[in-house]
């Protein structure tokens, strides 16, 4: 764990310039009195094949922020950050708030005259997390313990020293499957921003860069779905709290094929751009509960996502350090097939996977259950390289940044750290997807079939995964039962034979 310089250390407050990265766009990232520097680097898009909608959202958000700041900002469009910073400030001293990736932090600390100020955009300072982690001793760092500490420290949903309602975690109340005989939830639609001249300019630039062969994207860039400036982000937060939060908890883990948003907030993208501060989000949700406008299970579930899991991922990213991305406890080295990397949903027969891929292709976003139990679950069962899976999630999701995707994918989705974050792999068969969605009914596969023409790739894949890692899973009290069940399967040889006949690029 590292520490940051306080504001003003080593002449920071005397620096005339303050640099904002593209995910530091809210008012809480400004430094009073300083001229703002913003750099649009084309090299970022050359190095990796990002989702087109992600590139559009990022550039739109940066350019909207520059328009808001007016004469206060020096906005430079350059090939690289280094070139842009030189053009903006020369050798003048500049400050920047703690960046959100290991690579960016190394870069800014390598630059002469750049001072790194404390991180913003999170509830818990590094020092506070360090004290908590040090107090746990040699035991496993548990998110639930951290979450309770955050609730106490920040007085979220508390009555004195006790949680409101008597329970810290209402997750058991938030596992309801979707209502039957409906294609979309009976809830108001999410906030929808309106594109403007800045969006049109961004789209023209991206089109030109692609025509000139400077960059290459995946996915589609339809009308923008996520806020690109502060006013839009605040309206989106208000719409969620007033109209959608009441039903969020009930169907938090459910999926409907025709309802990509369900009751989710869709606030991860503006929050990860820095347009919203997490404190204002959880305080708004708690306010709705206190005013009797939202039930406790929905509010606690949302607070746990933001003040619990989001904070936990941020701090574990820095606590574990850069070497964490090299973890591969299960020894998975399979390459991602072309149909997956190109988001070719039409190549896939399995309806749950095809639907999730199509939603990523069209919007650059799906909620946490398709991410974990459809996309991540499939990658885990197929044995794909966890580092490549992490990169895919980072590039293809509008809310994807290194700090959030690395621990989420390496630690949770792919179990590549061997259990430092979770107690068992998040692998499941088709029965879970069938219970929590309407996706299995019209599918060519049957969730209960392990073999045969209609065998569910998730059900067969689950047992093949258990067999492949049976020794490790037999030593885990949470998965030993699955190993015993596998050993009693009468058709296990057929399941394994079919898996052996499958090509690495075969779509399910």
UniProtKB/TrEMBL annotation:
Residue ranges, compositional bias (Basic and acidic residues): 168-183
UniProt protein name: Cryptochrome/photolyase family protein
Organism name: Streptomyces chumphonensis
Superkingdom of the source species: Bacteria
Transmembrane segments: none
Region (Disordered) location: 168-187
Pfam families in the record: DPRP
Lineage start: Bacteria, Bacillati, Actinomycetota, Actinomycetes, Kitasatosporales
InterPro entries for this protein: Crypto/Photolyase_FAD-like_sf, PhrB-like, Rossmann-like_a/b/a_fold, UV-DNA_repair_photolyase
PANTHER family cross-referenced by the UniProt entry: SLR1343 PROTEIN
